[in-house]
Amino acid sequence: MELIHKLKEVGSSVIPISIIVTILHFFVSPLGSGQLASFYIGASLVIVGLALFLLGTEVGLLPIGEKIGSTVTAKKNLPLLLGTGLVVGFVITFAEPDISVLASQVASVNSSINETVLIALIGIGLGFFVSIAFLRVIFKLSLKWMFVIFYVMLFVLAIFSDPALVPVAFDSGGATTGPMATPFIMALGIGVARVQKKQEEADNFGFLAFASMGPILAVLLLGISNPNSESGSAQGMNLLYESGNFIPLFFEMAQDVFFSLLPLLFIFALYQVFLVKMPARQVGRMIVGIIYAFVGLVLFFAGAHGGFMPVGFAIGEALGMLSSEVLILVGIIFGAVAVIAEPAVWVLVEQVEDISRGHIRKTIMLIALALGVGVSVGLSMIRIVTGISIWYFLVPTYALALLLLKNTPILFSAMAFDSGGVASGPMSSTFILSFAIGASVGQGGNPATDAFGVVAFVAMSPLVTIQLLGLLYQRKQAKIEKKGAKK
User: Fold this and answer.
1) Spatial distance between the Cα atoms of 247 and 263, rounded to a whole number of angstroms
2) This prediction's pTM
3) How many angstroms separate the CA atoms of 8 and 48, rounded?
């Protein structure tokens, strides 16, 4: 039953994209021979694979994540806690499907970037900032001031980094908190928060926000140390966006996924033997969950590489050559549909409705997020068409988000910065990013500098949207209290 529920969840995010692709194929930009069939096969594999992966994560990985977080914190050994955040954050990056997809696309358009090195650097950044998130909870540090200090630092570093890697850096921040990292980091964080003597509601949030900062920092530092990146070859892009060939992909992906999960399994084994010591029944569930996750990841990657990404690229390229106006309009539609259909977004809006005691309804929030993300992807397409620097979009949006911190309730601020990673899920890293790269090629631009940034655009929209909703909630609460005082 749980698998059927997961299939419905994932299907609701993939099927709307599939319907739009079908409409575009028959009425706007016909796909090449066999591409639509490959897309349907790929979409089916993505649905089944992601459902199995999410089920495996829930059954086998989250319980041990929460157990590790609470057990290590209870030991009151600060070096052990920080080391856990660093090591687990690093190894989980290799198992994160969104990062793997992003890294392969970066390497295809930027020949100076090694895919494995990029993932490793992102993992180091993620692990480092997960440790910082733990420190914040333990020492009760101000979440808002930490956001301001770290984001100002990131933008200062971005000034000195390779301009081609600045969009990649902010994309990696959004992609890192994908279906593997998000629940596991949250489980670790909740485990840390639960053993605090004085626990505040906001202590359960903010972990994903910090996790997103680490990869941005790592890639920006890479851009500072390697300032002269090079464009990739057309052959590299053709290989990445080649439809079909599912059978060879299964074997290739199985090998890649095995070696990606191996470090994580090794870490789990160490903690189980020396610290956590879960009963045999729980260990058995964990093993079953890992098997589900392995099979799911293989199917997901085969579907993404064999059908999903190639068609996203092909449609983007065709629309880029056809009409800039149509390209921007389709980008807005894809962005709005993708975020509404993202399962994690539905969890987020339910959380906000509960916390606001029904004052901010799910429908209003979904409309706000759809408009925000739709416009964000549309702006990304405008950037591809015009060649406008990403700075003109990132700086005002993040400046507004940081200014809103002053008056927004702390809980909504924490959720807003967490939700950036939630909004930029698998659809953003696979289909929408491929669509943007194709659009850049169709426009005759440079994908290495123009296309990347679309995941960042998706991720930064909720930073403002949810904080504005928090201010609205605060205003409504003040009115209710004022009326109560008069009575």
Assistant:
1) 26
2) 0.89
3) 10
Tens digit of pLDDT for each residue in 392-429?
A: 999 999 999 999 999 999 888 988 898 887 778 787 88
Give pLDDT tens digits for 109-124.
887 888 999 999 999 9
Does residue 485 form part of some domain?
no
User: How many C-beta atoms lie closer than 10 Å to residue 277's C-beta?
Assistant: 12
Which tokens sit at 225?
Answer: 């140390």
Q: What is the pLDDT of residues 311-324, one digit of tens each?
A: 999 999 999 999 99
In a domain, residue 480? The reply is no
Total domains present in the chain: 1
Residues whose CB is less than 8 angstroms from the CB of residue 302 and which lie 6 or more positions away in sequence, other chains included = 42, 45, 49, 246, 249, 250, 253
The Cα 305–Cα 39 span in angstroms is 10
Q: Do the domain assignments include residue 82?
A: yes
**Measured distance CA(451)–CA(317) in Å, rounded:** 12
Of 358, 184, 148, nearest in space to 261 by CA: 184
Phi and psi based region of residue 34 (left: phi greater than 0; alpha: psi -120 to 50; beta: remaining): left
Q: Which two tokens stand for residue 93?
A: 């990056």
Distances (CA, A) of 112 to 152, 162, 442: 28, 12, 23
Rounded to 5 degrees, φ, ψ at 232 are: -80, 170
Question: 37-62 in b/e burial notation, b at 16+ Cβ within 10 A?
Answer: ebbebbbbbbbbbbbbbbbbbbbbbb
Angle at alpha carbon of residue 197, lines to 196 and 198, rounded to 5°: 90
430 domain residue, yes or no: yes
Model pLDDT, residue 347: 62
Cα–Cα dist 479/487, whole Å: 13
Quickly tell me which residue has 């993404």 as its tokens. Answer: 304
Is the distance from CB of 174 to CB of 237 less than 8 angstroms?
no
Q: What is the pLDDT of residues 3-51, one digit of tens each?
A: 888 898 788 878 888 999 999 999 998 998 889 999 999 999 999 998 9
460: domain range? 2-475
Using an 8 Å Cβ cutoff, are 416 and 408 in contact? yes
CA pair distance 78, 172, nearest whole angstrom: 28
| Cα–Cα distances in angstroms (integers) from residue 263 to residues 87, 92, 131, 257, 297, in the given order | 10, 8, 19, 11, 16
Provide φ and ψ at 212, rounded to 5°: -70, -30
